[in-house]
Amino acid sequence: MPIARPLPSLSHARATRAALPRPQQLAALGTVLCLYRPALGNELDGWQHAVDAAACRQVDSDGVRESIWFFDAEGQCCWRICLLPDSDFLIWDRLVARLPPLPMETHELGVGERLWRRLAGRMRGEAWRLSALRLQAAAAREQPFVASLATVSALGAEVAARLAREEGIDGRVAVDDCCCARAAALRTASTTSSNNNPSDMTTSLVRLRR
């Protein structure tokens, strides 16, 4: 029987925030998909635990997926930001070019290995959730971010849904209003899955506190 291994880690994590992307750099990315651990707090609290970051680039049958992984002082992944079709690609490329690449063994995993790691993480209370956000830099040192819950394009919603399905992550994103029938269908599905709660489709500026 396969042995459940620890979740991905970065063994060379440095105990300094100097290596992290600055809040202004992350805010310039536009709409991104935020993956966070509720055990650490809200959508932004994972960044408060991070001391290091690495760029991840995966190629599969659906194309290229890019993300930035943030690690705490123990080398455990505590926060992830994923590129969406709605993000600013040029700024993303400049940002990840300054980051070290994620170790190959961390993200090149088979389906079985991902399932075992997911199970091990859930047993340790390390479940993940996702949310589409627009980050904004704030003046306060103790809380460098504010964030708005963002809507995404139909293609962005497909990317988010595929990632959630493959990694067993809870969460959904709201689809931006447009005239395309596909987006309307996605909005309907999202509304149905949330028990017809209209507040789930509301885009509002929220202050995410520690």
From TrEMBL:
Q: Which domain of life is it from?
A: Bacteria
Annotated region (Disordered), positions in chain: 189-210
Which Gene3D superfamilies does this one have? HemS/ChuS/ChuX like domains (3.40.1570.10)
List the source organism. Xanthomonas campestris pv. glycines
| Residue ranges, compositional bias (Polar residues) | 198-210
Specify the protein name. Hemin transport protein
